[in-house]
Every structure is written in C-alpha cells, then in structure tokens.
Specification:
CATH superfamily: P-loop containing nucleotide triphosphate hydrolases
Number of domains: 1
GO molecular function: GTP binding; metal ion binding
CATH class: Alpha Beta
Strand content: 15-25%
GO biological process, one term: division septum assembly
Protein name: Probable GTP-binding protein EngB
Function: Necessary for normal cell division and for the maintenance of normal septation.
Largest sheet: 7 strands, mixed
Mean pLDDT: 87
Family: Belongs to the TRAFAC class TrmE-Era-EngA-EngB-Septin-like GTPase superfamily. EngB GTPase family.
CATH architecture: 3-Layer(aba) Sandwich
C-alpha cells in the first residue's frame, strides 16, 4: 500500500472511545521496546510519526492510527516492563484483553519479538492467547539487521519452537533500519483487509 495520509485518530482506554468508521484494524503487540513504533513508522513511511522511546512502557493507551482512510494500526501498550506497577500492568491487561476479544474490526495481530533472543514467557503467552481466540497472527522478528544473515534460519527456528508456532500463523524477519520485510508485512496486512 502506498501511504501518504496517516493520522493518530485517538488514544483510547475504553471501548466507547474506539473509532466508529468500521475500517479493518491491525493491532501491534509485543514487549516494551521491541520495535512496535519503529515498525509502524516504517510501514507508513515516516521517521517518527509513531513515537519511539528508549524509555520502556511509554505507550499506555490503545493508539489508533488511521491509514489512508482504509484501516487502523492499533499500537498496544508493551508488556513485560518491570518498572510499571502491578496495578498498572493489570489495568493494561484488561484493556488489551477487552479490545482483542471483543473488537469485530480487528482483522489480525502483528506480534513482535526480538529476533536476537528467544521469545520471553510474555511473548509465548501472548502468542498462545491470540491463537486460542483464533485471531490471525503475523509474528514479526524485529532487529533482524543485528543478526548475521546466515543465522536467520537458526533464529527463526528457535523463535518458532519456543512459541509452539503453528501453520495457521505467518512469520517475517524485519528490520526498521534496512526496511527488510516491509513489503511482506504489508502483503499480510492487505490480505487481512480483504477478509
């Protein structure tokens, strides 16, 4: 998709704040600082539209980015950040669960993991949770440029094994630095939009 028009429509914490246009929605989930904002910026051809931060836990709302008046990217708060209080994590968890399990416009979830490391327990839990609810998932392994290309298959295999990856999901290595994987991610998104 050629992207020219993007707007942060709303940062929501409750269903009554969600957009009402009925556009397909693609949620981006992953632990704090895994690269959700960097992926979003790469997909929409912007350097810093979605705010990136070296401070984990920056996103605390569901951020609905309207793309070309055709779909929404929904940036979800990162999980697994220890400096956020347990109460705050529980609040985010309920907000995310309500969105994922009840939003009919949600057509798929891009679950980001760090390509350099095996998935965390939180990554595994999120992936299994999405599969349990039969939500289409694209696992995107970010920061792939930090790994020698000859080791990508090895890292992909470790990630898939840890997630107990199944054939109904898709997988893509990705780098915001080199834009590698951008077209494949867009293809997956466009396929979901047609469903």
């Amino acid at each position: 998709m050629e992207v020219h028009n993007v707007e942060l429509q709303i940062s929501a914490v409750r269903p009554d704040q969600y957009p009402e246009q009925g556009y397909p929605e693609i949620a981006l989930v992953g632990r704090s600082n895994v690269g959700k904002s960097s992926l979003t910026n790469t997909l929409i051809n912007r350097k810093s539209y979605a705010r990136t931060s070296s401070q984990p836990g920056k996103t605390q709302t569901l951020n609905f980015y309207r793309v070309e008046d055709q779909l929404f990217f929904v940036d979800v708060p990162g999980y697994g950040y220890a400096k956020v209080s347990q109460k705050e994590r529980e609040k985010w968890g309920k907000m995310i669960e309500k969105y994922i399990t009840s939003r009919k416009e949600l057509k798929g979830v891009i679950s980001l993991v760090d390509a350099r490391h095996e998935p965390t327990d939180d990554d595994i839990t999120m992936y299994q949770y999405l599969r349990y609810y039969d939500i289409p998932v694209l696992v995107v392994a970010t920061k792939s440029d930090k790994i020698a290309r000859g080791k990508w298959n090895q890292h992909e295999s470790k990630i898939k094994k840890a997630l107990d990856f199944d054939g109904s999901s898709a997988f893509q290595m990705f780098s915001a630095q080199t834009k590698m994987g951008k077209e494949e991610v867009w293809k997956w998104i466009e396929d979901r939009m047609g469903e």
